[in-house]
Amino acid sequence: MEANQFGKNGWTPDRIGNLYGKVFVITGTTSGTGFEASKILLSKGAKVVMLNRNLKKAEDTIRSLKQGLGNDIDVINIQMDLSRQASVKKAAEEVLQTTSQIDALICNAAIAQVPKQMITEDGWESQMGTNYYGNWTLQALLFPIIEKSKGRIVTVGSMGYDMGIKTIKFDDLNWDNGYTPNNAYSQSKLAQIMSIYELQDRLQEVGKTAVKAYACHPGASRTNLISTSGSLMMRIMFYLMMPLTQSAEKGAYPQLMCATEPNLDQSGFYGPTGRSNWVGPVGAHKIEPHAKDKEVAKRLWELSEKETGVKWNI
Ligand SMILES: NC(=O)c1ccc[n+]([C@@H]2O[C@H](COP(=O)([O-])OP(=O)(O)OC[C@H]3O[C@@H](n4cnc5c(N)ncnc54)[C@H](OP(=O)(O)O)[C@@H]3O)[C@@H](O)[C@H]2O)c1
Fold first, then answer.
1. Atom of ligand 1 nearest to the CA of 229
2. Which domain of life is it from (predicted)?
3. Is the pLDDT of residue 230 over 80?
4. Is 20-308 a CATH 3.30.70.100 domain?
5. pTM of model > 0.90
6. Ligand 1: which atom is nearest the Cα of residue 109?
């Protein structure tokens, strides 16, 4: 195994300096890694714009953050349901009205292991619609201000990219045939990662190298992910695997690293480097070639423009 560039304990938030004057937009902060990442960013003095679907939960989250960090932290919530394109577009507009700077957009929110095929109001399988198309549209609409800020786009993927069918099922993207929770979730996370590496190439081609795009994942972290959308069986399985997992706080480190660490190589895939990439010191680790399959990535990008009607202004 290659030595971790951040030493034997890997990347930790001690490396983050003062973030006063920096603005981070982060999705899904009511629990799990998004909550922990927000807490750490705020503790370093950043402004955090949270995008959450549930206003009551978002209010409770802000209250809890203020209780822990003090009333003068700079945090707001904008309502966004990532599974609905109309809501994502409205939220992006509100973000653009609220802030003229985004140092990093952290695409953290997701659903996972949805037991049965569900179709969103926009006509997509729920995990593809939420985790992939939701983020696609959010990233594209916020891109102009990220570009102006020489900022970053950080996608929170999953080791699931290397499970399932390990490619995009273009002829049946909604899994009308052979739906399984794992296949559909894995495809959505693979799509998220693929579009980041494709975005890098497109930015590179036109010389827009000031914007950086990163793919990472939290390993196996104790969060609400499976209890929110997974079946009872999945919840039991995750419970049994508990001793092999890490805290939600540690799960937040890869996204924090990608949002703040200077000079981080964009070609890397970042997450825990220990057992099965579930736990352990955070750093770059191996990514399988199917995640960087250029032909598939290009086709997915073009399809996404068509499906969402949203084009990137690159
Ligand atoms: N935990 C793991 O072991 C693991 C492993 C691999 C990858 N990941 C990835 O890590 C990221 C964070 O997940 P987590 O484990 O921290 O899970 P979590 O505790 O369930 O947090 C997910 C967050 O996303 C939000 N969310 C879900 N659907 C949404 C929607 N339609 N619109 C807006 N927000 C929505 C949730 O909000 P609500 O409170 O409203 O539900 C919550 O704030 C995800 O991208 C996930 O795929 C996690």
1. 20
2. Bacteria
3. no
4. no
5. yes
6. 24
